[in-house]
Write a structure and sequence with these properties.
Layout (H helix, E strand, L loop, with lengths): L1 H6 L8 H4 L6 H10 E8 L3 E10 L8 H4 L15 H5 L18 E4 L2 E4 L8 E2 L2
Antiparallel strand pairs: 1-2, 1-5, 3-4
Length: 128
């Protein structure tokens, strides 16, 4: 930025490649692999996907909130009329899917696929 100011030539520069390699953050990946292990996860709007989530390994179970606290979570149900799960699984496309105020968001077209500009309302992993 100093060079841009001194040269009088402001511009947008992507500094991300200077800090991130194609392999990603190897130190962070090592820590994640040490602390977490793959686990089945239930995704609202989609259902159970084997080994699609993470759980804390037994060696770190003292820090596992699911084991430390009594969690009484309600059943994960998408809002009535929500088609987010069907959209993500390719059964519907956003323009053909009915929606409610809660999950109606701005959809954008990107190279033959639809993406929602905001988060999917009911498609989140839930504890099993």
């Amino acid at each position: 930025m100093v060079e841009q100011i001194e040269s009088g030539a402001p511009r947008l520069e992507n500094a991300y490649p200077r800090a991130v390699t194609l392999q990603g953050n190897l130190k962070a990946q090592k820590i994640l692999a040490e602390v977490f292990e793959p686990a089945d996860a239930c995704w609202r709007g989609i259902g159970l996907i084997p080994l699609s989530g993470l759980r804390i390994r037994e060696a770190y179970s003292a820090h596992d909130a699911v084991k430390r606290f009594t969690l009484n979570l309600p059943e994960a149900k998408p809002p009535k009329g929500c088609a987010c799960g069907e959209i993500l699984t390719g059964k519907k496309t956003p323009p053909s899917a009915p929606s409610t105020k809660r999950c109606a968001r701005l959809w954008i077209r990107w190279d033959r696929a639809w993406f929602r500009a905001k988060d999917m309302c009911g498609v989140l992993p839930v504890p099993l």
